[in-house]
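Sample intake sheet
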Amino acid sequence: MRGLVLLTAIAIAPVASVSTASADGPYRDRSHGERTYRDYRDGYRYDEGYYNRDGRRLDRRGRSARWAPIIQQNAATNERQFINVLGRGGRFNRLLVESVRGAPVIQRIAVEFEDRQTQVWDVNRRLPRGADEVIDLGGAKRIHRIVVYTSPAHRGAYSIYGEG
C-alpha cells in the first residue's frame, strides 16, 4: 500500500512542475511592463481603458477631462439605490454608468430633474468590470436625483459620471 502511494506521488510531481513552468510564459510580472493574466482575460484590457457598447476601445485618460464623477463605487446590494445629486455639478448632457467591481445587473435608471420631470431608461444589462452604459439626457439639464434599479443577486459596484 505504501508503495502505491509513493509511486503515485512520484508520478504526479513531474507533471505539476511542467505545467507550472509552461504557464509562466506570457503571464509575467507587471513591474517590468509586461502583460499579466488579467490583460489576456476575455481579450479586454480594462486597466488602461474601457470598451463602449459597440466594442470600441476608448482611453480612460480622455474620460477624466470630460466626465465629472457623480458617485463612485456604489454597491449594487439593494433593488433600488437613490442618489441625491441636488443640482451639484451643474448641467449634464449625458450620464455614464461604469461597473467598477463584480458584474452588477443594471435593470433601469430613472433621473429626476430639478424641474421635477422624470425620465426612465431600461438598461437591462449585466455590466462586467470596466464595461459601461452611456445615457443621453436630451440636452443640458440639472439633476435632482438618480434612482438605479439593480438585481441584488448579481453583486458588484458601479460609478456614475456626468458630462456637461
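Comment: The first helix runs from residue 2 to 23. Confidence is low (pLDDT under 50) at residues 15-48.
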